Amino acid sequence: MKFSVEEPEKIQIYLEIAAFSQVPCVFYPTDSSRSFEGILEKVDADRFGLVFKQWIPAQTGLLVIRSFTLQFKCQLDMEKGERPKEYTFPPPQALSSHDPRKYLRIPIAPQLTKIVVVKKLNEQGEPFSEGPDKKLIQGAIQDVSANGIAFKIANPDPFFVPGGQVHLTYKLFGLDVDGPARVVSDGGSLVRCQLSGMKPALQHQLNQKITVSFQRMLEKHHRDLLQLIEASAHLRDIERTKKSTGELADRKQLDENFVGLINPILDAAVNVMEQMAGLKLVKREIRLERICSAIYDLSSQISFQGPQVDGHLFLCLKQNVACSMAGTILGGEYSDIDENVRDMAGELCNIIIGNAKKNLARDQVYKLSTPTLIVGKEHLVAVLSKYPVVRIIFDSPIGQIDLNLYLDEINEKLRTESLTPAGFEYKTELINPILRATENIFENFLFLETRKKGVVMRETLAPKFELSGILDVFGKGMHGKILLNLSNKLALQIHEILLGVEKDTIDDEVKDAVGEMVNIITGNAKGEFERMNLGYNVSTPYVIYGRNHIISNAGDNPFISSVYWSSKGFFEVCLSFTADE
């Protein structure tokens, strides 16, 4: 099969995907019988680079790269780069594939599963008249070309050995394929067949449609890739800023939008605590911090979005303070953080932000999420924001009470005014766009094999791992939360992929990477939700770090949770959506 690419934009796409995937390339210098392995990198908008493990005898030659599912060759005339054994070059004028197969083969995405009906044939090419081989079986198509197909069956079948004859029937890209084929190979439940006797006109039509579909798939993968590259650049900017200043810029001079929101929240907190809990709060200090330096046992969180700013409010308490407060408000004695204590904290946070809204100008209308409750001995809270947290520390007769306010400017206005949900109900199917986006990002761009272990509903989340990245969703017709919970090993691996820096401990940069991942996944699923007339905007991600933390949703809806195995560790994806009243 020959697959040539001459359009500059498409050449750029293939090279960017190859550079991000870090799959080794092979360079064959002119007039040399040797080959040299190197890694492709993107230097800037106009140039790419090759970094070799050793010196090469010539800078002109043939480069072989793998991009997406194809192998390409191109002629290069390189220049020496800034680093030793590095060479740079502009994108070539053409890429050509040298796949030994006659036709382009395209994978079928799991969410677009196509079924093939298989009828077994005897040596004469005729259907069996009796016996176990007479039964029709079905398979899920894995990939396909104009003259070949690979499909998976439920259980291995001894009939499928090389040379076995079958009759295949399936519909693909609007075309009906119905004809004989010969088994080429089998791998247990995976069977590969070569079509035979297909009409040339149908084969040509099918090949054209596969090629067009391949290009669309490639463009979508490229959009996803650019999102990851942008996330990597964002994390690097944060890292550079922290290295140059010691921390994120403190933004000492908060503009009037921020001050106009902080003061009503501060006043509301003082009034609510005095009226409901009989506590006179004394403001000790206001700090600006990258993450909350204090450690807590119970945190109640609400996200909000408004015309100038959006952000998160956290009411953070130690166990003894939370239990004492619950005893005053609810009556009785509490020694542990149980459901009543959690509900009390969630309602307090809700009342504080609700009271603060009354003191805002009429044009300052804020959308509010339902409270999220985090329970865990000595957990830390961090938000992936370009601004630090405003940490307001209060002293009270029962101990210290912290209000942590993360504020950020809205970069994109909610674009859902014209979207009207038709009979929206809370359904488990709403998790599918998120799960598909997760699988796509992990498998196609982080290059980590994943396997879903099942989907369950949970009233309260007790994440299996220490790191949880969370964001709140605001939309026309729905609101909710999306959570990504990772093992430490997997979080470190993702940070290394995004930033190219190997770490062995969980620090601020790793937490930022986890926050970016949940942001990317949610953005990736946005298009599919919009097709369901459920467009949305999202909050800034926030990250919870601590052993055995528990997260509960103060709304009526449970979390839908799916646990995944990956080649670098386990992770969990959870969401809770509800319809707006």
Write the layout of secondary structure elements.
Layout: E1 4-5, H1 8-21, E2 25-29, E3 36-42, E4 48-52, E5 60-67, E6 70-77, E7 79-80, E8 86-89, E9 95-97, E10 106-107, E11 115-121, E12 137-144, E13 148-152, E14 165-172, E15 175-187, E16 190-195, H2 200-245, H3 256-277, E17 282-289, E18 296-305, E19 309-317, H4 319-330, H5 339-358, E20 367-368, E21 372-383, E22 389-396, E23 399-409, H6 431-444, E24 450-458, E25 460-461, E26 467-475, E27 478-486, H7 488-499, H8 508-531, E28 536-538, E29 542-545, E30 550-553, E31 559-566, E32 569-579
Antiparallel strand pairs: 1-9, 2-3, 2-5, 3-4, 4-8, 5-6, 6-9, 7-8, 10-12, 11-12, 11-14, 12-13, 13-16, 14-15, 15-16, 17-22, 18-19, 18-20, 18-21, 19-23, 21-29, 21-30, 22-23, 24-31, 25-30, 26-27, 26-28, 26-29, 27-32, 31-32
Helix pairs in contact: 1-2, 2-8, 3-5, 4-5, 6-8, 7-8
Protein model, in words:
Keywords: Chemotaxis. Residues 133-208 form the PilZ domain. GO terms for molecular function: cyclic-di-GMP binding. It is a single chain. By secondary structure, this protein is α+β, with helices and mostly antiparallel strands. It has 4 domains: 4-97, Electron Transport, Fmn-binding Protein, Chain A (Pnp Oxidase, Chain A, Roll), CATH 2.30.110.10; 106-206, predicted glycosyltransferase like domains (Thrombin, subunit H); 251-411, Chemotaxis protein chec, CATH 3.40.1550.10; 412-581, Chemotaxis protein chec (3-Layer(aba) Sandwich). 28% of the residues lie in helices and 36% in strands. The chain has a 16-stranded antiparallel beta sheet that branches. A hairpin with a 6-residue loop joins β2 and β3. α2 runs antiparallel to α8, α6 packs across α8 (508-531) and α7 packs across α8. The radius of gyration is 28 Å and the shape is globular. The two termini are 56 Å apart. Residues 247-255 and 410-427 have low confidence and may be disordered.
